[in-house]
Amino acid sequence: MDRKFAIKDPLAESRLFLSRIVAAFILILFLIAGLVLRLVYLQVVGHEHYATLSKDNRIKISPLPPTRGVIYDRKGRMLAENVPTYSLELIPEQIENLDDTLGRLQKLLDISEEKIDLFQKQRKRNKSFTSTPLLQNLSDEDVAKFAVVRPYFPGVDVYARLVRHYPYDDLAAHVVGYVGRINEQEMKTLPLAKYRGTNHIGKTGIEKTYEEHLLGTAGYEEIETNAQARAVNTVATVEPVSGSNIYLTLDIDLQKIAYDALSEYNGAAVAIEIKTGGVLVFASRPGFDPNPFVSGISGKEYKALQDSPDQPLYNRALRGQYPPGSTVKPFLALAGLEYGVTEFNHRLFCPGYYKLPNVDHKYRDWKKGGHGMVDMNDAITQSCDVYFYDLALALGIDKMHAFMDKFSFGRKTGIDLVGEVDGLMPSKDWKKHYRSQAWFPGETLITGIGQGYTQATPLQLAHATATLANYGKVITPHLVHSIISADYADLIGGKADALIPLKAQNVENIIKAMTNVVHGSRGTAGRLAKAITYQIAGKTGTAQVFTIKQEEKYNEDAIDFKMRDHALFIAFAPVHDPQIAVAIIAEHGGHGGSVAAPIAGEIIDAYLNQKKDAQP
Fold first, then answer.
1. Do 575 and 515 meet the contact criterion of CB atoms below 8 Å apart?
2. Which letter does DSSP use for residue 556 in this model?
3. CA-to-CA distance for 128 and 95, rounded, in angstroms?
4. Which of 125, 139, 330, 338 sees the fewest Cβ atoms within 10 Å?
5. Which 3 state secondary structure label does DSSP give 277?
């Protein structure tokens, strides 16, 4: 029987052993190299990143919101200020059970569901480590209640904050505007770094228009915390930079006079300093209290404002579009003189109505029996409609549009306030484009007395009046006089932006007629002249709310108040040294001479008396 013997091969075994040793050595070298490379990365390349992560285990970055700039009137009275208050705020990442915490806080401090919902919306917009306010303007009693149970509410604390406050309530609400909490839409477009720690943004008025100046620059603190995330030490601080303070041209005393003088009427009053373009009065009645909007107005309160038939949120001075009525007559008369289609002494007979050739329809004058023979001076002084029907037909709608456009009728004045509307000065092209219709001669006639399609804002009327008093110098109206910060001061406005080429004699004739409106024996605002020692140039206006049929008679006492005519008045004074221009609209006031003119008179008188008292 054969046997097989295994023959040992020492050389092969040695080679195998050596190869395994080499492979193991190479593997060890690779592992050591990998370890070295990792150590190099951790210690050199990734040092800053990992040091930051390590630091964040005990260091938190807390944003420091800047103090918002203060808004003053022209005499340095605060229209928007920052007042200290207590705010209950939560940091969600430090709270284990947010719903339970909110439920306990709700019972403790009697927090409404609406406040809880508002907090939840705000929380979702912020980072989880950001402090989000739940309640603002805490009373001392609420602060004391929470202080007792504070250890049982980790991640919840009371902070002393500065909150926006508007001391004049509804008086300046439409001018100054208000700040409110940043909403989701705004959050998508706002630079996050700029609004760190800030939950509010300007929503309307000066607060919105000059947001960039008022906001300031955020700072931050590096805070050392313990295991319970409580602050134990401030490591470093970068101070915030406060927003710029803004001084307005507005005079709050004159604003109050205008607001109170409107009294029972909704409407608006605008007064402009003629030489500078500074807006002295910008009143819209009714107003509203802007303070509830700062901390979050309740749905019930907001709905009441929105649904009110008086529309208190509506800025009539800036956005109210009204038929200007007879207040356009001085400008159309000037157009007639400038285009050479009539003369100041041209006379025509007013029988109380006007008829187009070969047309039976009668375009009525406000005075049933007519004014008899009138020239341009008489027509402006007595507000003769027939004269201006005839002048409008002679001018034609396109010339009327072109001339009135120079005075900002039908376009924005450029005031430094967001939300201004254009108004409307119609033309053939406008009607063709927007109505797909031809223009009719009868529409030219009613445009000549400021009716029909014509729409103007109180601001446009005041601006046009100031431009006329300035003999065609156009100064853009502005509300901000100066912007003051720690490192600069910027003065706004005051220079002529354009010059309408007008013949001085023509302007003087129009001003003469407007002066007779107030001081002439047959002027429609004659009662205004009784208590003043200077001269006012003005023009009354009455704007129809609804159209009266051909054979019907307007009876103010027989119709509902809301269907009565609007009362308008434009004016400037003193005539020989124009300083202030005013436009008044009293909704459903009926008569410009009896309702709107006295309001203008109060504003003008108060302003000129101020100037007189200020003289050494």
1. yes
2. G
3. 10
4. 139
5. coil
For residue 314, what is the DSSP state? S
CB-side exposure of 346: number of CA atoms within 13 Å? Answer: 13
DSSP state letter for 326: G
Taking the CA of residue 131 as centre, how many other CA atoms within 13 Å lie in the half-sphere pointing to its CB? 21
Place of tokens 């190299």: 33
Distance CA 579, CA 466 (A): 9
Question: In terms of Cα–Cα distance, which of 180, 133, 165 is closest to 291?
Answer: 165
At residue 615, the pLDDT reads 66
And the tokens for 531?
């208590």
Q: Are 153 and 104 in contact (CB under 8 A)?
A: yes
Concatenated DSSP letters of 484-505: E-SS-EEE---S--EE----HH
User: How far is 232 from 245, CA to CA, in rounded Å?
Assistant: 35
Extract the tokens encoding 512. 């003469």
Mean pLDDT in residue range 2-31: 76
Residue 238 pLDDT more than 90? no
CB atoms within 10 A of CB 64: 15
pLDDT tens-digit series, residues 289-337:
999 999 888 888 999 999 999 999 999 999 999 999 999 999 999 999 9
Q: What is the spatial distance between Cα 532 and Cα 538, in angstroms, rounded to a whole number?
A: 14
CA-to-CA distance for 336 and 345, rounded, in angstroms? 12
Q: Are 116 and 102 in contact (CB under 8 A)?
A: yes
Model confidence over 452-486: pLDDT tens digits? 999 999 999 999 999 999 999 999 999 999 999 87
326 an active-site residue?
A: yes
Q: Are 524 and 304 in contact (CB under 8 A)?
A: no
Which helix (H) or strand (E) segment holds residue 403: the answer is helix 397-406
Q: What is the side-by-side order of every strand in the sheet holding 580-586?
A: 279-285, 267-273, 580-586, 566-573, 537-543
Number of C-beta neighbours around residue 422 at 10 A: 16
Handedness of CA 437, 441, 445, 446 (dihedral sign): negative
Neighbours of 91 (CB within 10 A): 21
Question: What is the DSSP code string of 173-188?
Answer: HHHH--EEE--HHHHH
List CB contacts of 263: < 8 A, sequence separation 6 or more.
none
Structure-token pair, residue 304: 């009441």
Active-site pick, 326, 383, 408, 427: 326
Radius of gyration of the chain (CA): 36
Helices (H) and strands (E) in the chain, counts: 22, 23
Cα–Cα distance for residue pair 293/206, rounded to 1 Å: 15
Question: Distances from the Cα of 591 to the Cαs of 48, 366, 524, 587, in angstroms?
Answer: 77, 11, 9, 10
Angle at which helix 252-262 crosses helix 597-614, to 10 degrees, equals: 160
Partners of 306 in the beta sheet?
none
Handedness of CA 47, 52, 57, 59 (dihedral sign): positive
